[in-house]
Design a protein that fits this description.
heterodimer, A: mainly alpha, 3-stranded antiparallel β-sheet, B: alpha+beta, 5-stranded antiparallel β-sheet, 23 strands, 34% helix
């Protein structure tokens, strides 16, 4: 492979966005952990110093990925997956506990978080399995296998307990839909979710009325000639009503108070201002502070290193999960919109790249990458601006954290490497 | 379908995020955030309020330290309320009330819990305050008075009201602001400008340094010291003379319009309105509906001027050429007016009167005749009334004078519109309103207007608007409103015969103030005795006459012009005349030679007279008490 053609084939737009997000991330980490008494940039005792080091490691990782043979990832995907599962299992006896979750190996200079590597491994393994000519998602057994690949690491991670990262693996079901899993699974899941939320917000009666109207509309708008057996419709109605009726039971007795509070806050269910204030102070504190910090940035922001709430540490975990608030406070709407646009463009670009793959493995892996990145972006920013309940997962490329940054880098650049290689496979 | 599903999802989420972000950062964004930001603490540095001196540089008002207990509600930790209340000397219900109000005001801004502790209380509290989180003591300065007089003229300062806070964004809760008098009028000068310091805080409410390195901070601008036109000694002396009397004294320097003294009796010690007892004391003074000590009579009391007003009519007659000083009018111990030839009384003793004797004997008949002459000159009553009103108003009567004090009254100089309203269009003539020719009836003036009128006579035709501010930081005032002459409509030469008459009041045996001469000083003056009425249980009842006096001296080079108004003091030559005589001697000579006269004035009071209408029994008026 000549270096020249490789450089022509690699997707520079994605690389550019990757670099932009990483730099914005680092600047924000610098701002949120900067202290006037110690203004040095490359102090490895500081978060921004360490992050600079991780960025360096990430670049080396990229060079390493670009230097290896592309098919190595496909060939060794099984082994990589196995290693990551072993690492996840190994956490239980050997892991280091931070903030209640046993998610790290202490490597002395740096804490390794194997769940970040497991994301890459799972995406690779799933791609490998689904791209196998013998796999057919219409078969029940193959469906179970495919789900199994996702579920094993997800369960291990949820047990750490790190439910946020566990949820990410469920995002890989997107890949399954792309590769033949019937869409009505998604539709059913979505409807159940909507019914759950709608019942909490508006009550069972309104949900039943809405479902009835929906069915009526369906009958009125369908073409005369089309005959639909009434059975599935009746079934749909009964199931909807049952779910709706059971929501309160589940909500009131199965969920714990702090879960309930999250929903109360998210759906603005609590009407009593006193209780709302209390929830805001306890479970909603982070969201309240992050929303306020972003709001206070206004259109143009307060300027680099001028964020008063950032300086005052009003937003907890601002350098990691809440890094977006620093952008919001110091760079305003211009900054936040830029980040949202960069992520949107990157994800759309990756979809485009995935779709142009001739090789099934590359395409499926691409979808895995997109799903994982998309879910992180969706949940993280959604949480910070108060649209999604609090789930602690990092913002790709921007949040502080070595395992995360290196993990996301691996994830993205393996795909870019596969893409750069796509013609060669066939040529 | 499957291919575009994820893409549309990505776009949808991107749009929702941008929508939410624009809601937060564009629509909910409040530009006034520096004060709302919990990460920024605003500290104020209050400058010292300017001192106030009298015209000779004698100190009137200075400052002393006071201490407020402040609370920041959200920082308050559970505490032993009872112990704390005992310590700062309030009861528990007040404590709870204040905390509630403080919270309502703002959970994170300081609120005054207890204001203006004494130095002793402060010393006792200082050590123990540390125990109570969320409370602290803020040092403030409060007024210290180096005089017991001029309370109403100086005015007082007190905490800004919620209303003030809305109207004047400069102030924050608990700050002090001038409420009346000079303190109110020159608030901006005296106050200075507070300095602001913004401190960056962390979420544990700890200071972590200046916000933006202090780029937005400002230094306090100290309040300026001012010098008033008041003569401290004369003011104090006048107030001493006013003990036991209700009324007003205004003394002006006619050469500049400077107010030498502004006395309202009864008065009170200005120190009563300082510190923690201010509110209670103020209520006590404010609700004293008989003595009304907070009501500044020298500026607000509107009464008929009585005989001093005669000299204005004399001036109008001379100016309109309807009389010469030598023209004579006969007094029949009164005079006859109207179709029925109704007799109106006069106390001058009767006989032929020229202008000089008309003035010094204060003859009603002479001035009624003069008034008739003025009206006879013109074809219509309306025309005559307009001319008369124009001349009178040119002495600063009937309108707000425009002094630099925040209060005042217009008084009343009626015109044709007024009488048309009362009697109907063209259904009145000079004889209906002849009372105003000797200052009774519908005319009303305030003591300061009367003093200003006297100054205009002393100056032979002009005056300076009376004012109380002399210098700011040693620099004389330059406001043309107070440094430029206002001319009357009377020519200079017309004043001479009138002033002669006013001199004769003292100099001629039979003059109404002959016995009040000050040795060695030529005074021109005029007595006034004003009938007045009140309603007791709905019945119009006459009370003892008001005693009024105007004077200026020395005649050849006037240095002081004054007006004295004593409620129910009977003859003008009595209380008002005595006080005028003493005030002039005090100001021009510095000491009093007639000690017996002084002693009499210091001792005599009118309290009995003031109690009469409230006694519930019939009472005599205008008693010969001495």
């Amino acid at each position: 492979m000549s270096g020249n053609t490789f450089l022509k084939r690699i997707d520079w737009l994605s690389i550019f966005i990757y670099l932009a997000l990483t730099i914005i991330g680092w600047v924000s980490i610098y701002s949120s952990t900067f202290s006037e008494s110690n203004p040095s940039i490359l102090d490895f005792g500081t978060f921004y110093g360490k992050q600079a080091f991780f960025i360096g490691v990430s670049i080396l990782t990229v060079v390493f990925i670009f230097a290896t043979e592309a098919n190595i990832f496909e060939r060794f995907s099984g082994i990589i997956y196995a290693i990551s599962i072993v690492l996840l299992v190994g956490l239980f006896p050997f892991g280091k506990t931070i903030a209640g979750a046993t998610s790290w190996y202490n490597l002395g200079f740096f804490n390794l978080q194997p769940s970040e590597i497991a994301k890459v491994a799972t995406a690779l393994a799933l791609a490998k399995y689904l791209s196998d000519i013998q796999t057919d998602l219409k078969k029940q057994k193959d469906k179970m296998y495919a789900f199994g690949i996702l579920i094993i690491p997800a369960v291990l991670i949820i047990l750490q307990p790190d439910p946020g990262s566990g949820v990410v693996f469920l995002a890989l079901t997107f890949v399954l839909f792309r590769e033949g899993l019937p869409l009505y699974y998604l539709a059913i899941g979505l409807v159940m979710f909507i019914i759950f939320i709608a019942t909490l917000k508006f009550g069972t009666i309104w949900v039943v009325i809405a479902v009835s109207i929906l069915i009526a509309l369906f009958y009125l708008t369908k073409k005369e000639r089309v005959k639909i057996s009434p059975l599935p419709i009746i079934l749909f109605f009964i199931v909807s009503v049952t779910i709706s009726l059971s929501v309160r039971v589940v909500f009131d007795s199965v969920l714990k108070q702090h879960h309930r509070d999250r929903f109360n806050l998210w759906l603005r269910l609590e009407k009593d201002p006193k209780k709302l204030e209390e929830i805001r102070r306890s479970i909603g504190y982070n969201t309240y502070q992050s929303e306020k910090a972003i709001e206070s940035g206004g259109f143009t922001g307060k300027g680099f290193l001028q964020g008063t709430r950032t300086k005052g540490d009003f937003v907890p975990e601002q350098h990691s999960d809440y890094i977006f608030t620093t952008v919001g406070e110091e760079w305003g709407f211009l900054g936040t919109a830029t980040v949202v646009l960069l992520f949107s463009i990157l994800l759309l670009r990756l979809v485009y790249i995935a779709e142009r793959q001739k090789n099934a493995f590359s395409r499926i892996y691409g979808y895995g990458v997109i799903s994982i990145l998309f879910v992180h972006y969706l949940i993280n920013i959604g949480m910070v601006i108060g649209l999604v309940p609090t789930i602690g997962i990092p913002l790709p490329f921007m949040s502080y954290g070595g395992s995360g940054l290196i993990g996301f880098t691996l994830l993205l650049f393996i795909f870019l490497k596969l893409d750069a290689n796509r013609l060669k496979e066939w040529g | 379908m499957k291919k575009i599903l994820l893409s549309s999802f990505i776009i949808l989420i991107g749009i929702s995020f941008l929508g939410r972000l624009s809601y937060l950062q564009i629509f909910s964004f409040s530009p006034n955030q520096i004060l709302e930001d919990p990460a920024i603490k605003t500290l104020y540095n209050f400058p010292e309020r300017g001192y106030i001196y009298d015209r000779n540089g004698k100190l009137l008002v200075a400052n002393q330290a006071a201490y407020d207990v402040m609370v920041i509600p959200r920082e308050v930790k559970p505490l032993d309320t009872l112990e704390f209340c005992n310590l700062i000397g309030i009861d528990k219900s007040t404590f709870i009330e204040n905390i509630k109000n403080a919270r309502k005001h703002s959970p994170r801004l300081p609120y005054v819990m207890v204001s203006q502790l004494s130095k002793e209380d402060y010393a006792r509290l200082q050590e123990k305050m540390r125990k109570y989180e969320g409370f602290y003591i803020q040092k403030r300065s409060q007024r210290y008075y180096d005089t017991k007089s001029a309370a109403n003229a100086l005015g007082y300062i007190s905490q800004v009201t919620p209303d003030d806070l809305k109207k004047f964004p400069y102030y924050s809760q608990g700050e002090l602001k001038g409420k009346t008098g000079v303190e109110k009028q020159y608030e901006d000068v005296l106050r200075g400008r507070k300095g602001v310091k913004y401190i960056q805080k962390d979420r544990f409410n700890r200071d972590i340094g200046p916000y933006k390195n202090g780029a937005l901070d400002t230094l306090p601008e100290p309040g300026k010291e001012i010098q008033l036109t008041i003569d401290k000694e004369l003011q104090e002396y006048g107030e001493k003379l006013m003990v036991g009397k209700h009324g007003g004294i205004v003394a002006l320097d006619p050469t500049s319009g400077e107010i030498l003294s502004l006395i309202s009796g009864p008065t009170y010690d200005p120190a009563l309105l300082v510190g923690r007892k201010r509110s209670a004391n103020y209520s006590k003074l404010y609700y004293d509906s008989i003595a009304k000590p907070t009501w500044d009579r020298s500026l607000l009391a509107q009464e008929s001027p009585g005989s001093p007003f005669k000299v204005i009519n004399a001036l109008v007659a001379l100016q309109e050429d309807v009389m010469t000083p030598d023209d004579k009018i006969r007094c029949y111990n009164g005079f006859y007016v109207g179709k029925n030839r109704t007799k109106r009384g006069c106390h001058c003793g009767g006989g032929l009167r020229d202008m000089n004797s008309g003035i010094y004997k204060s003859c009603n008949a002479y001035f009624a005749g003069t008034f008739k002459q003025i009206f006879d000159k013109f074809d219509t009553t309306d025309e005559a009334m307009d001319v008369w009103q124009k001349h009178v108003k040119s002495f600063g009567l009937g309108e707000y004078l425009g002094t630099d004090l925040p209060t005042g009254s217009r008084g009343r100089i009626p015109g044709k519109e007024y009488y048309d309203r009362v009697y109907g269009d063209n259904r009145w003539s000079w004889s209906y309103i002849v009372s105003i020719s000797f200052g009774q009836g519908e005319v009303a003036v305030t003591p300061i207007q009367l003093a200003n009128m006297t100054a205009a006579i002393a100056n032979k035709g002009y005056y300076y608007t009376p004012h109380i501010l002399k210098k700011v930081e040693g620099k004389p005032i330059t406001d043309p409103k107070y440094t430029q002459r206002k001319y009357t409509t009377i020519d200079k030469e017309n004043f001479d015969p009138v002033i002669k008459g006013m001199e004769a009041v003292y100099k001629t045996p039979g003059g109404t103030a002959h016995w009040l001469q000050v040795p060695g000083i030529n005074i021109a003056g005029k007595t006034g005795t004003v009938e007045n009425f009140t309603r007791i249980n709905g019945v119009r009842t006459q009370l003892t006459d008001h005693s009024i006096f105007v004077a200026f001296a020395p005649v050849e080079n006037p240095k002081i012009a004054l007006a004295i108004f004593i409620e129910h003091g009977y003859f003008g030559g009595r209380y008002a005349g005595h006080i005028a005589s003493l005030m002039i001697e005090k100001y021009l000579k510095g000491e009093i030679t007639r000690k017996d006269l002084e002693k009499k004035m210091l001792e005599k009071t009118l309290e009995k007279e003031y109690a009469k209408p409230y006694s519930g029994e019939p009472f005599p008026i205008n008693e010969r008490v001495w």
